[in-house]
Amino acid sequence: MFALVDCNNFYVSCERVFDPRIIGRPVVVLSNNDGCVIARSNEAKTIGIRMGVPLFKTADVIKAHGVAVYSSNYALYGDMSSRVIEVLAHFTPDIEIYSIDEAFLDLSGFNQCSLTDYGRSIRSTVRRWTGIPVSIGIAPTKTLAKIANRIAKRSRESGGVLNLTNPTHRKTELASIAVNDIWGVGRSYSRFLRSIGIENALQLSNAPESFIKKKMGITGVRIIQELKGVCCYPLEQSPPQKKEITVSRSFKHPLTNRADLNEAVAEYASRVAEKLRAAQLEATILVIFLMTNPYGRESRYFNIKTIRLALATSNTAELIAHAHRGLDEIYRQGYRYKKAGVIARDLFSERSRQMTLFARNRREQSSEIMEAFDRINRQFGRNSVRYAATGSTADQKWKTSFQWRSPSYTTDWNQLPEVS
DNA sequence: TCTGGGGTCCTAGGACCC
DNA sequence: TCTGGGGTCCTAGGACCC
User: Measured in angstroms, what separates residue A230's CA from nucleotide B5's C1'?
Assistant: First the structure.
């Protein structure tokens, strides 16, 4: 038996915890560079602001309704997320952190008759201890728990908690769920399902598996099974080992200058290296890509270079050098670049490093440097030390911009909220 | 003028092996 | 004219998730 705990309008709710003046008002949170809307309060949804819409396309609505606008503040959201998880851990040790605002709980061992009450208690405790409102769906499979959660969110009388354990009750509710609202069914699959007359979750649960398998593969079969109450996706408590690590950014204004691109790519390679070390991993493949604006009419260019490293590494200097070498091969003069990124692939645990006969001493020395580097940045804050290749902060043209970012209330001593 | 970032899984097809 | 059978590995692309 699963419960899916999902934070309501999570980023907006985080902002509201620290600025109650925006409770009851329409609020949106924007993506990097304040480009798109990525979170909306219920009021913002009601006035028709769509998920993912570029800010400039909805500027009129925002102005007309006095919508409160925030740049994204991941330091804040990440910290609030771990607080929510801490509260959940008071209720069961069997937790799968599914995303920044969602967690599955395994409630199999609990008294099945009082699950709804237990859910209500979880919900009110999270609210009281963190300030974040959540909805909870309870059901025998993850896919059904997702659906229960969705219904809990939209129906007032559920009080934010919905239990779909009862099979008869479940049938009527499944009939009310459109196929595109099922976990695992996106744009393409819902178009296909509609074309063969399957409009809702109840119909899909009764569809012939062999036929669905031809179009949707094994994923489609699993969705049907899960809708029927047969569990195909168990709780995953320990996250599987990462397969790739990406750092990429769009530039607010296009870059034309090779020197600027060099800095940006060095920065992304540094971040990749830091993430690798944090996960105690090393990469044997480094991928560098860059692209022009995919929208609009100016001339387009996209290229990507894959570099196989002779020796697995998480060393910042090495990765920057490889990234620059990759950039050499794909950079073409005359384009206005809008985005670049660095990806580390074929990751291995640093403990199982493959040595070479001669590289040993240099290696050990470099990892000591990296350890010191990370220690300094942990203690004195990110970027306290960094590589000169990332440029001088005074003129990093490629830096992501955040015009309306709230303070890091919970993660920076200098930005604590003040109460008067 | 202005359009995010970071992932995973699955499948088909090609290359290659004995 | 007629040309086996059974596999694995790798990659690209599609689809999906938050």
Answer: 34
CA A140, C1' C3: Å apart? 55
Main-chain dihedrals φ then ψ at residue A239, nearest 5 degrees: -60, 135
Hey, is A49 helix, strand or coil?
coil
Query: Which of the nucleotides lies closest to A306 (Cα–C1')?
Result: C11
Give the CA-to-C1' distance from A247 to B5 in angstroms: 8
Q: Tokens 């609030």 sit at which residue?
A: A80
A100: tokens are 């920044």
Residues shown for chain A: 420
Can you tell me the distance from the alpha carbon of A308 to that of A270, in angstroms, rounded to the nearest whole number? 18
Asked whether the beta carbons of A31 and A264 are under 8 A apart, the reply is no
pLDDT digits (tens, 9 = 90+) for A221-241: 999 999 999 999 999 999 889
Residue with minimal CA–C1' distance to C17 is A184
**At residue A68, what are phi and psi to the nearest 5 degrees?**
-80, 130
DSSP bridge pairs for A30? A37, A71
Percent of chain A clearing pLDDT 90 (strictly above): 88
A35-41 contacts: CB < 8 A, separation 24 or more?
A35/A250, A38/A11, A38/A72, A39/A9, A39/A10, A39/A11, A39/A12, A40/A9, A40/A12, A41/A9, A41/A12, A41/A16
CA dist., res. A84 & res. A125, Å (int):
10
pLDDT band at A358 (very low <50, low <70, confident <90, very high): low
Instruction: Check: CB of residue A145 under 8 Å from CB of residue A114.
Output: no
Q: Which residue matches tokens 């920057």?
A: A320
Task: Look up residue A148 and give its amino acid.
Answer: A
Q: Which nucleotide is nearest to A217 (CA to C1')?
A: B10
Helices (H), A229-315: 258-278
**CA-to-CA distance for A36 and A59, rounded, in angstroms?**
11
User: The pTM is what?
Assistant: 0.94
Where does A108-243 show beta strands of DSSP type E? 134-139, 161-163
